[in-house]
TrEMBL record:
Recorded superkingdom: Bacteria
Keyword Cell membrane: no
UniProt keyword terms in alphabetical order: DNA-binding, Transcription, Transcription regulation
HTH araC/xylS-type domain residues: 192-290
Species in which this protein is naturally found: Megamonas rupellensis
The name this protein goes by in its record: AraC family transcriptional regulator
């Protein structure tokens, strides 16, 4: 499930904290009016129930507890458990959906007064983070901690913020950005669609704006999805596909190097040779010779 915020206004951070639970500790039972509670587990396991749905949060997993709905621990911790949490709210509208909403960043019109259309922030209610995302999340959340709940101590510890209010909100939005980036099913679909497009139309010129218009995703989102899936930028992915096609032509045809370059979308033979050597590790000519030797 996704929690969809209509913006503006933007969600706003209230406070961040960290909790250390012992074996046998249980998360409290409560309803938080108008306040969202984001929990991110860094060690152990936390057993939570929200809206009759039970979750076992392990290291690297997160859960957003919406306002005005009962949540509680349904089982005591069976190992030492550490987790960050932060409370935030919005004065705007939000709703629950099965899929995220992606907004296209429309081109401004040639008017005297520029305008900005409303947009949406789509947060998965529950999910897991990669090792890199966990590290970023822990760093951001640790910076905005103002409350520490250590179950080995009788009282909570309260701290003054080490950063400004503005910086706290910036870190909060960085946290939301991490959560927005983990739309794994959609990330995979977008990246695979781009790969299939390049595989069919690899001779066409690279045009990120055209891809954005065709697939109705912002260019930044396309770049992020392809990078997460293949470890390459869209342009780099296209070049790798072109070079793979070139390797096939060099192996199975007698095309000249220049004709091979043109056949896979390169207008400049020198640029083709440079990219081929960068990706394959040798020149097209040497690659063809090696393939001929291997056939003997």
């Amino acid at each position: 499930m996704y929690i969809i915020f209509t913006c503006p206004p933007l969600p706003h951070l209230i406070v961040g904290g960290k909790s250390l639970y012992r074996v046998g500790d249980l998360h409290l039972r409560r309803i938080m009016p108008s306040t969202f509670d984001l929990i991110f587990v860094t060690a152990g396991k936390l057993y939570l129930e929200e809206n009759s749905q039970k979750y076992i949060l392990k290291k690297g997993e997160f859960l957003i507890l919406p306002p005005n709905r009962l949540h509680k621990g349904y089982k005591c911790c069976d190992e030492a458990t550490d987790f960050f949490w932060l409370h935030f709210y919005t004065t705007g509208k939000f709703k629950y959906m099965d899929k995220p909403i992606y907004d296209k960043n429309h081109k401004q019109k040639a008017n005297y007064q520029f305008t900005k259309e409303p947009f949406h922030i789509s947060l998965p209610q529950h999910g897991s983070l990669t090792a890199e995302q966990q590290s970023q999340m822990a760093e951001y959340m640790n910076t905005i901690v103002q409350v520490k709940i250590d179950k080995t101590k009788p009282k909570k510890d309260f701290y003054s913020s080490t950063v400004s209010q503005l910086k706290s909100q910036q870190l909060f939005f960085s946290i939301l950005s991490i959560l927005c980036d983990i739309h794994e099913p959609n990330t995979k679909n977008v990246a695979e669609k781009i790969y299939e497009h390049f595989s069919l139309f690899y001779t066409e010129s690279f045009d990120l704006k055209k891809l954005s218009d065709e697939y109705a995703f912002h260019p930044t989102h396309i770049i992020r999805c392809v990078k997460n899936k293949y470890g390459l930028s869209p342009l780099q992915l296209l070049l790798h596909i072109r070079i793979q096609k070139a390797k096939e032509l060099l192996t199975y045809t007698n095309f000249s190097i220049n004709k091979v370059a043109i056949s896979v979308g390169f207008d400049d033979n020198a640029y083709f040779t440079k990219q081929f050597k960068r990706i394959v590790g040798t020149t097209p000519t040497n690659y063809r010779k090696q393939q001929q030797i291997n056939k003997i």
